[in-house]
UniProtKB/TrEMBL annotation:
Alphabetical list of SUPFAM superfamilies matching this protein: ClpS-like (SSF54736)
Annotated GO biological process: protein catabolic process; proteolysis
Pfam family, one: ClpS
Domain Adaptor protein ClpS core residue range list: 16-76
Protein name: Clp protease ClpS
Keyword Ribosomal protein set for record: no
Organism encoding this protein: Flavilitoribacter nigricans (strain ATCC 23147 / DSM 23189 / NBRC 102662 / NCIMB 1420 / SS-2) (Lewinella nigricans)
MF (Gene Ontology): peptidase activity
Key words, A-Z: Hydrolase, Protease
Superkingdom, taxonomy of origin: Bacteria
Coiled-coil parts of chain: none
């Protein structure tokens, strides 16, 4: 479901987590995942549902330096996103 990015030697592999909230619609979360994470519609829908049901999900695994701008873009759009090991 979540594709790994190839590490080009510029960072340790980490996980980008998104937490459920009561503010963002499914459509908005799906749109954000497709635009920022380049997930397919099906991947984005599955992740949005998983986050809704489980409270959180890993949405991307990649080197930390690749995940940082993606996390910031998700947060800028109102999603609760962290790189594993960071505090919410």
């Amino acid at each position: 479901m979540v594709e790994d990015e190839v590490d080009t030697g510029s960072g340790e592999v980490a996980h980008l987590l998104v937490y459920n909230d009561d503010h963002n619609s499914f459509d908005w979360v799906i749109e954000c995942f497709m635009e920022i994470l380049q997930h397919t519609n099906q991947q984005a829908e599955q992740l949005a549902l998983l986050i809704h049901l489980k409270g959180k999900a890993t949405v991307k695994t990649a080197p930390r330096n690749v995940l940082q701008p993606k996390k910031e873009a998700l947060v800028d759009r109102g999603l609760s996103a962290v790189i594993e090991g960071e505090r919410i």
